[in-house]
Amino acid sequence: MSIFEYNGSALVAMVGKNCFAIASDRRLGVQLQTVATDFQRVFKIHDRLYIGLSGLATDAQTMYQKLVFRHKLYQLREERDMKPQTFASLVSALLYEKRFGPFFCQPVIAGLGDNDEPFICTMDCLGAKELAKDFVVSGTASESLYGACESMYKPDMEPEELFETISQALLSSVDRDCLSGWGGYVLLVYAALLTPTEVQEKILKGRMD
Fold first, then answer.
1. Which of 49, 82, 166, 169 is deepest in the core (most CB within 10 A)?
2. Nearest Cα to Cα of residue 21 among 150, 201, 174, 187
């Protein structure tokens, strides 16, 4: 078994019209044994930027703490929040720095940039970025997520339709992977008319076996 599959994970980020959604499963396992069913894989950097970390759970938590530290230093020095593109470069540099003893993580970054333009990207454990205009996936269920997202995705979806699409893609994919599942967590971020950014968090009920 690969070290990336040790805890099991499923992560997907998808873009819509001036919005994005990032979703993960909630299972924490040790190989085939389930340890927890409320594990958090999606983390907030600031109101318009989120990161999901698949792979080894301990490395994911360590890496998130390092990223929060670096982002706070940036905020103190620059007196503004980091743009998603800049943050993706930071994550990539952090991973590549440790390339001879890497963090066993595959991050998924999603955020709203200038003019509420959604930005998503993923990378491998060495920090090689993969940018996309539609969706990115990561984790042990990535193959079935690719299939589900390819068939369900359509461009310029409104927030409600985007939520429905990413939820269906996640739930149908984790049913085909025994290392991930146990419900889902979806985070929807969109630019509202009156408020700067609207954030909705939802827990999905899935198969519990």
1. 166
2. 187
For 36, residues 6+ apart whose C-beta sits below 8 A from its C-beta are: 27, 28
Give per-residue burial for 67-89: e unless 16+ CB within 10 Å, then b: beebbeebeeeeeebbbbbbbbe
Distances (CA, A) of 102 to 42, 50, 107, 133, 194: 20, 22, 13, 28, 43
Strand, coil or helix: what is 77?
helix
Q: Token digits for 116?
A: 């509420």
Q: What is the pLDDT of residues 61-120, one digit of tens each?
A: 999 999 999 999 999 999 999 999 999 999 999 999 999 999 999 999 999 988 889 999
pTM metric for this prediction: 0.93
